[in-house]
Amino acid sequence: YKYQPLDHIREYFGEKIGIYFAWLGLYTANLIPAAVVGLLVFMYGVVTMGTNVPAREVCNSAGDFVMCPLCDENIGCAYWNLSDTCTQAKLAYLFDNEGTVFFSVFMSLWDCLSL
Fold this sequence. Notes:
Mean pLDDT: 88
Strand order of the largest sheet: 1-2
Strand content: under 5%
Low-confidence stretches: none
Number of strands: 2
Largest sheet: 2 strands, antiparallel
Order of helices and strands: HHHEEHH
Number of helices: 5
Shape: elongated
Structural class: mainly alpha
Radius of gyration: 24 Å
């Protein structure tokens, strides 16, 4: 964090620009708790990724579930196995886990109380 010379900015640029820089500094400082909580929620997703039952079921399905083509079979789209989406299922858990519900409530309250 570096000190902003708000008095000098106000004297040189005027009141409106000085208030803008003061508000920008305050808002940026207030974003730090939100960033820390967001990082903790993301790390929770990384740590608990192996316990995600739906992703494990998708990954362990091997060739049990054959999915319909995503487009017309006549233009080159083929049937595909559900287990092909194993990586996407694991990555989706990082951004959609139990912690994201807490984070959304936290962000709603933070936004109302910090502004």
